[in-house]
């Protein structure tokens, strides 16, 4: 997610796909995405690591705000894949 961070998120891309990377966006140490061209489709792949239990509400809110703000900028014509650990509860 950040060039100088010791911890955080990352995305590995196999060598044949590396030449298809159009853009990389590092939002913070917990959130990043890459844009790939796969055949005729543009795909955004997110790597996200939400703050876990025990972290402050402010940190959690900052993460979800950054995540939501980032996703809202992506055109609906592009496919979004989200990977990572969102530390959520269902129910």
Automatic annotation (TrEMBL):
Gene3D superfamilies: Endonuclease/exonuclease/phosphatase (3.60.10.10). SUPFAM superfamilies: DNase I-like. This is Endonuclease/exonuclease/phosphatase domain-containing protein. It comes from Helobdella robusta (Californian leech). The lineage of its organism: Eukaryota, Metazoa, Spiralia, Lophotrochozoa, Annelida. The gene is 20197204.
């Amino acid at each position: 997610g950040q060039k100088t961070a010791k911890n955080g998120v990352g995305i590995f891309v196999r060598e044949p796909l590396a030449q298809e990377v159009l853009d990389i966006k590092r939002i913070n140490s917990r959130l990043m995405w890459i844009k790939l061209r796969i055949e005729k489709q543009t795909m955004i792949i997110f790597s996200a690591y939400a703050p876990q239990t025990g972290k402050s509400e402010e940190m959690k809110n900052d993460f979800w705000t950054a995540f939501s703000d980032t996703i809202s900028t992506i055109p609906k014509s592009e496919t979004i894949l989200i990977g990572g650990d969102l530390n959520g509860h269902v129910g």
